[in-house]
Design a protein that fits this description.
209 residues; 3-stranded antiparallel beta sheet; 5 helices; 7 strands; disordered C terminus
């Protein structure tokens, strides 16, 4: 694995699709405020802190999940799998719209508000599109399977109803015609009993011809 991802532990079949750090121009507001204040030494810690935070923040999108690493002296890694993502959105400040960066926000099912934010990343709209595509890819087959199963259940229910109706009609029909059929069978049996063996004798001369 690349040295810049030494903090990232991936599954065997998991691959990195996108990775980035905050946009360099996102440091502009800190410099605008920090440079004048550095004349009285107050702005120096602000500039240093902003730079270190920028350098130690990483965002990664893999085939399975979203990752966010932050921290200067310590390290914090957050992971959210795609099948837990419920909603995505992106936003841009005035400077972000001018320089092409913004934030992509991730909300999860059962969570309270935004659970993960990719702040100040380049082209946030494209990143949101990528995340949404992965969400659909992970949830699509399962949703389709559930939909097909529901349709099959409805079809089976209809077929059972039709079968019960047909069997009910067939059961009612013999009951109505029963006596006639029984009478027919009895007459046939009587005719068979009335026949004599001589009735089945043939003329030998006829057979020879």
């Amino acid at each position: 694995m690349n040295a810049e991802f030494d903090w990232l532990t991936l599954d065997d079949d998991e691959e990195v699709l996108w990775a980035d750090t905050p946009h360099p121009y996102s440091l502009v507001p800190s410099f605008i405020v920090g440079v004048p204040l550095s004349l009285v030494l107050v702005g120096i810690p602000l500039l240093v802190g902003s730079y270190l935070s920028h350098k130690n923040t990483n965002y990664v999108v893999t085939s399975d999940a979203l990752y966010r690493k932050t921290g200067v002296l310590s390290r914090s890694v957050q992971r959210i799998e795609f099948d837990k993502v419920q909603d995505t959105s992106y936003s841009q400040t005035f400077l972000g719209a001018q320089f092409g960066y913004g934030s992509v926000n991730i909300s999860t099912a059962g969570g309270s508000g935004i659970e993960m934010s990719f702040q100040n990343v380049a082209d946030p709209q494209s990143l949101q599109t990528l995340v949404n595509e992965r969400i659909k890819r992970r949830s699509g087959p399962e949703t389709d399977a559930e939909g097909k199963a529901a349709v099959l259940d409805d079809i089976l229910t209809e077929l059972r109803a039709i079968r019960q109706a047909v069997e009910g009609d067939e059961a009612a029909t013999p009951g109505d015609d029963g006596p006639d059929e029984v009478g027919t069978e009895s007459a046939s049996d009587a005719s068979a009993d009335a026949l004599e063996p001589s009735d089945f004798e043939f003329d030998a001369t006829t057979d020879e011809r």
